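does this look right to u?? zinc ion version
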Amino acid sequence: MPTVPRRFFVCGRKLLFRAKAGDLHLYDGPDAGALYRRGWDDLGVGEVVLLADEALPANCLALSLRQAHAHLPEPVWMQAGRAFQILGWWREHRFCGRCGEKTEERHEELAMLCPACGLRSYPRLAPAVIMAVTNGGEILLGRARHFPDGMYSTLAGFVEPGETLEDAVRREVFEETGITVENIRYFGSQPWPFPHSLMIGFAAETLERAIRLNYQELEDARWFPMDALPPLPDKISIARRLIDAFLAGSGR
Ligand SMILES: [Zn+2]
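got this back:
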C-alpha cells in the first residue's frame, strides 16, 4: 500500500479542515502552541497534532472522524483513524494503571512507561469478529437498538480473553440468535477507530433457520433473501463489504 504523508490536526475530538475553492482540505497549520504531537514512523509519514481542546483556529471546520469519511480518500481516512487512535491512547494512559504514577511517553516505540513500576502501556486494540452467516441464498442480519430506522447489519461482537477468532464467531452468533454455524472462513479485516477496534470479518454457514433472539443484544434478527434486503450500513464499514460479497457470490 502506498504511504500517504499527512499531518492531521485535531481540536478536541474533531479533525480540522479548511474550505478552499468550495472544497474541504485537511487543515495544514500553523501549529504554534500545539498541546501534543506524535509521528508514527521514522519517515515522518504520519503525524497527529492536537492543537487545542476547545477553541478552533480561525477559518477552520471541525468534523468528526465519521463525517470526515465523505471528504477524504480512503487511504487518507484510514491514516486519520490511526491518528485518532494514537491520540486516544495518549489521553488515556497519562497515569499508570497499576500504581497510579504519572507515565512518561517513549519515543522509540508507541508506549507510555511508568517510571515507578516499569509498566508499559501500548495503544489498545479491541478485536471484534463480524460475520456474514448464510443458509443457501439467505443471509442472517440483525438490528441493534441504536441503528437508524429499518437498517439491519451482519452480527458482530468483541473477542473474549482465551478465545480463538473462530470460537468468537460461533459464540456470538449462538448468543445473539441461537444458531450454530460451521464452515467459518476468513474474509478480511478493517481497523475501526471508534474508538479502537479491529474488525475481523468471516463468512459462516448454517443449516438451521429457527432464530432464538437474545433481546439483551438485538432488537431483531431475520433471514433475508438477496432480492429483498433491508436498508444496509453504508460503504464505510466491512459489514457492507461482507453483504456485497454475499450478493456477488450469489450471482446477482
Ligand atoms: Zn506504575
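The chain has a mean pLDDT of 92. idk if thats expected tbh
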